[in-house]
Amino acid sequence: MTSRDLLTLRIELMESQPLIWRRIQIPADLDLAAAGDIIQIAMGWDNSHLQSFHSADPTQGWGKPQTGTSWYDQLALDEELEGQPQEGTTLGQALAVNPGTLFYVYDFGDNWMHRLTLESATPCPGGQCAARVLEGELRAPVEDSGGLSGWYDKLEEFNAEQPSEEQQETIDWLRWRSGDELDFDPMTYNQQAANRELELYFSLVAGDSVFGQWLRAKPSGVRRYALILASEAGITDDTPGARIPEWFFTEMVRPFQVLIELAQGEGIKLTPASWMNPKAVAELVDRLQWEGIDYESSSRKREHTMHTVAQLREVARMAGLVRVYRGRVLATKKGSELAGDEQRLARHLLNAINTAEKDEGLRDGTIAYWLCRAAGIEALSDAASDYITEVMNSLGYRMGPLGQPLGRHAVVHRSTVALLFEELARWHRRDSGGYFSKPAQEHVDEFARMVLQAPVS
Asked: Which Gene3D superfamilies would you find in this protein's record (predicted)?
């Protein structure tokens, strides 16, 4: 077995009768955190509890010092459980400790024990490895069933011919908790659905997009949840190139070109308060036909009263297109090179939109915002607030001294870039009253998908 092999593993839920099992193919070079994601998807778990890998059977050591090596996810390590981090060991390396056998434990309360057996190792076809389920039988138990004994007790109640009131409550709970309120069938395993999710996992988490890079830095439970949101929002592994629509160049790229042009040579002189001088701002507004933007209608244009102009300069600085030097805004070498090539400038902006923001909270809030917009949820609506705060809560953000989950009216900050591009879409697609029109909504939705799918260079 080499690090670039594709492994065939048999996964068995230990002591299940009849046996709940899967046969999967999985790359040997995945770290154990990613391998845990694959097992979760293949089995059909929710990835909502702690999990661990062990080289020795953990059921053989109850009440005794553990033998072998254990690898825990970060949340478990934070609980001061003794073991190694999963991110530092590949699946192939872990399978070599106790040759060909590995144990996986999910939910330390219900203790779902899995035995992983290596059946074969072959070179990845074409050098490209991805996981998939080859076959399997029976759905995984419903989460929080109380372990195997609790699961089988609940199945007995589920199969009652004339259920009592108490049994009917159990039946209703199983259907609700499983998410299959109409089609819950404990004897059926949906292999096709598992493989669809695995395909999405490898196209996004293993890809080079902005969204994929962001996902890889998040805990496995968050990754699974975010993948579901991405699927619903139509996020794929496609990356924008020739597909960049014409409106993006005229409405989003052109303002940066004009700013860079004004910052060439001696640049744009700043006022004593470090704002761009009114003459330069007026020329920028005139060349972009921005008269009336930010509700500024006076002849003397001031950057400090025009937030879109101020945001444009800040985003250009963050993207490395302009800089401030000795009281002037100057075009950088990179900015000067890109200003004359709108295709390269467009790709640079798409890449910089997320990578330029260093604050993790702002990055997370911005990704949550892009996901919400990509899903087509109306801006500034209660539905949008609920969506964004739910994503932030899943990432572990809390508010107040008691650490309460974020509510609908919590303020979730997003980057200056997101604010700027939403304002530009609003400006170019405003209705007669100056409000965010339906075409503007659709433009921002399309732009959000472009941002999330943009390649990270």
From this structure: MM3350-like
Distance between CA 353 and CA 421 in Å, rounded? 10
Query: What's the CA gap between 258 and 245, in Å, rounded?
Result: 20
**Nearest C-alpha neighbor of 26 from the set 43, 48, 51:** 43
> Tokens 């439970």 correspond to what residue?
221
- What DSSP letter does each residue of 63-114 carry, written as one string? TSPPPS-EEE-HHHHHTT--SEEGGGSBHHHHHHHTTTEEEEEE-TTT-EEE
Task: Choose the most confident range, by mean pLDDT, from 208-222, 251-265, 338-352.
Answer: 251-265
SS3 state of residue 331:
strand
Beta strands 5-13 and 112-123, pairing class: antiparallel
Structure confidence by residue, pLDDT tens digits, 378-413: 777 888 888 888 888 888 888 888 888 888 788 888
Q: Which residues pair with 399 in a beta bridge?
A: 404
Q: And the tokens for 258?
A: 């004009």
Q: Which helix (H) or strand (E) is 26 found in, with range? A: strand 21-27
Give the C-alpha separation, 198 to 214, whole Å: 18
90 in Cβ contact with 3 (< 8 Å): yes
Residue 209 has what DSSP assignment? B
- Report residue 16's pLDDT band, with 50, 70 and 90 as the boundaries: very high
* C-alpha atoms less than 13 angstroms from C-alpha of 424 in its C-beta half-sphere: 26
The Cβ of residue 64 has, within 10 Å, a number of other Cβ atoms equal to 7
Model confidence band, residue 321 (pLDDT cutoffs 50, 70, 90): very high
The pTM is what? Answer: 0.65
| pLDDT tens-digit series, residues 174-186 | 888 776 656 788 8
Where are the strands (E) in 124-213, listed by range? 132-137
Give me the sheet containing 322-325, strands edge to edge: 268-269, 328-331, 322-325
